[in-house]
Amino acid sequence: MITWQLTTLLWAAIGLRHTTRASPNLGTITAPLHPPPPSLPAPTPPPTRPPVPREQLYEAAEDMWAKALALNTLAPEFQGQNNTEILAQVGGEATLSCYTYHLSDERVAWLKKDDDQLLTVGQEVYAAEQRFSVVHTNHDEAWELWVKDVALSDAGQYECQLTTNPTVSFFFTLVVTQAEAVVTGPGEVHIEEGSHLSLECQVKNAPVPPVYIFWYHNNTMVNYARQHHLQVDHQNYTSTLVVARVRRTDAGTYSCQPHLAAPANVTVHVVTGERPAAMQHGDTHEEGSTVTSGQVDTGALNLPVLVTSSGLVMLVWGQVAGVGGMR
């Protein structure tokens, strides 16, 4: 008993601690434990900094936002939209599309640079004419300026401006054309009764094919007329009117009137009865031959000429001022 007490005091003297645990076979066992590590000094707190003024934080955020817009304002597929050229025709519609990233409504404005005219800001329209409108859908990257009933005065440079600091702008050029119809050949055609007549109308200066091309004969539309000897074929920019066997009633003015294009007219004269005297070769004319129109040089005069498929050449007098004769 005394020995155990001395041992305990000895261990305490050298700064060690011990515990006892029970063992079913060995009885009580004394086991020393390592002393706890010395305590570390408390860390020194960092020096306190004065708070940044709120105005300075706002300025830094605005500057970072402007730089982000300048570097990556467009979606990758629309990086080449700057200096885009848009084609439109008089009376039609034009759409100018400006693509951006996540901008609030008040940060996109459309201007017409040539006139220094503010057209829209956000979804508000400031243009004097109601032909201008802006279209934008939430969570959509496109801001579209729509121009209805386009006029020649609408041509020029337009600006899509992001009202950031600094501002970021993209420019678009609107090119406006006046589409027109052109009937190939001369303005007057002389043709014999029973011949084959073909009139071709082409639409020029149109950015897209016209919705329709109507033919009128003496102010009456013939596209859907129930006449077996007359047929109209329309393909893209071209329309052809074919008369299989010309009749006397087919004479008159034919007008080609495409959608949103200036019309073109041609006058058809049907020659009946005896043929004019000024006919070369003296061959007998074959009924149902194809007739076209052209010009022939007769020295000082440049007279219209009627050519048939049988090879006959027939001068039509009275086409030049001061020249009389039979038509």
Strand order of the largest sheet: 3-11-10-5-6-7
Helix content: under 10%
> Main sheet?
6 strands, mixed
Secondary-structure element order, as H and E? HEEHEEEEEEEEEEEEEEEEEEEEE
Please state the average pLDDT score.
74
Write down how many β-strands occur, each being a DSSP E stretch of 2 or more residues. Answer: 23
Estimate the global geometry from the Cα principal axes. Answer: rod-shaped
Ends apart, CA distance between termini: 157 Å
Beta-strand content:
35-45%
Structural class: mainly beta
Tally of separate helices = 2
- Provide the gyration radius in Å: 46 Å
Low-confidence stretches: 16-24, 70-78, 276-327
Describe this structure in words.
Strand 19 (252-258) and strand 20 form a beta hairpin. The chain is mostly beta strands and 327 residues long. It contains two helices and 23 strands. Helix content is 9%, strand content 41%.
Keywords:
327 residues; 2 helices
What's the gist of this structure?
A hairpin with a 6-residue loop joins β8 and β9.
Outline the fold blueprint.
Layout: H1 2-13, E1 17-23, E2 27-33, H2 54-71, E3 84-89, E4 94-99, E5 108-112, E6 117-121, E7 124-125, E8 132-135, E9 142-147, E10 156-162, E11 168-177, E12 180-183, E13 188-192, E14 197-204, E15 213-217, E16 220-221, E17 230-235, E18 238-243, E19 252-258, E20 264-271, E21 291-298, E22 301-308, E23 313-315
Parallel strand pairs: 3-11, 13-20
Antiparallel strand pairs: 1-2, 4-9, 5-6, 5-10, 6-7, 8-9, 10-11, 12-14, 14-18, 15-16, 15-19, 17-18, 19-20, 21-22, 22-23
